């Protein structure tokens, strides 16, 4: 077999140039690729120009605020330390999970930030959260002013985000159609739960302690009338639990572990211990001497508290 060399004609060069141009364009696009999730972290107000703006700070010395992003200020001086913003999104609410700041954004994203070194640790999208924050499709939604929309979104973000400070801090995000739990250490999804039947979760009545999150459910029958619902309890170190409850049940955290549950005028209020995952026995009741969880404080017995 013989090989013959020949010069490339202008026509044969064109495909090669086209491929080269595509490769160059692709490389340029990759070089200018937006930061994932639109994250922008910038140090501000550094008094000493020779200081490293990315150096770690003492988180206890910082005051954190939201709007339009997550803003950090030096407590001692009020000087702006750093800002974390996301392109096209507005921060609505923050809550601390241990030493980390967890933020709800108006586009339905939840992020965790380590204030000391300004590291964005994880991002998680919660289905349906953005629509619920906006009140999309609700009666009268089109009549709300812009200020009313902002106020509604901020209030709902505060209701949706619950942080738990047990030995392994974690984050619960509650919407009417879904509740999700994330381990703050790495953002790992630990559970997601949808309400059964004609029920919805109620973020505004949700309560968090240092050990669990209790989420009430509102249910209706086939004609739309309220019927008995329940309360779903969630923990990361054990399986969750279910409590029966009426449609108007109210909950109030008494301390780091106990929640007062009031379920209408007929049912006697009870105290639920989220550390023991059981109700306390009422003071003076026949069951008190044999109860798994004895009353705390009011009966002269502080009980065993977790260390």
Q: Can you describe this structure?
A:
The chain has 307 residues and is mainly beta. It contains 3 helices and 21 strands. The chain has helices spanning 10-31, 129-134, 146-160; strands at residues 39-43, 62-66, 70-74, 80-86, 91-97, 100-105, 109-114, 119-125, 161-164, 170-175, 178-183, 189-193, 199-201, 207-208, 213-220, 226-234, 241-245, 250-253, 258-262, 270-273, 278-279. A hairpin with a 5-residue loop joins strand 9 and strand 10. The radius of gyration is 27 Å and the shape is globular. Residues 1-34, 46-51 and 302-307 have low confidence and may be disordered.
- Overall, the morphology is globular
Report the radius of gyration as a whole number of Å.
27 Å
State the separation between the terminal residues, measured CA to CA: 86 Å
Can you tell me the residue ranges where pLDDT is under 50 for at least 5 consecutive residues? 1-34, 46-51, 302-307
Number of helices: 3
Q: What is the helix/strand order? A: HEEEEEEEEHHEEEEEEEEEEEEE
Structural class: mainly beta
Q: What's the mean pLDDT score?
A: 82
Which range does the strand content fall in?
A: 35-45%
Helix percentage range: 10-25%
Largest sheet: 5 strands, antiparallel
For the secondary structure, the number of strands is 21
Key features?
single chain; 307 residues; mainly beta; four-stranded antiparallel β-sheet; 14% helix; globular; disordered N terminus; disordered C terminus
In summary, what is this structure?
Helices cover 14% and strands 36% of the residues.
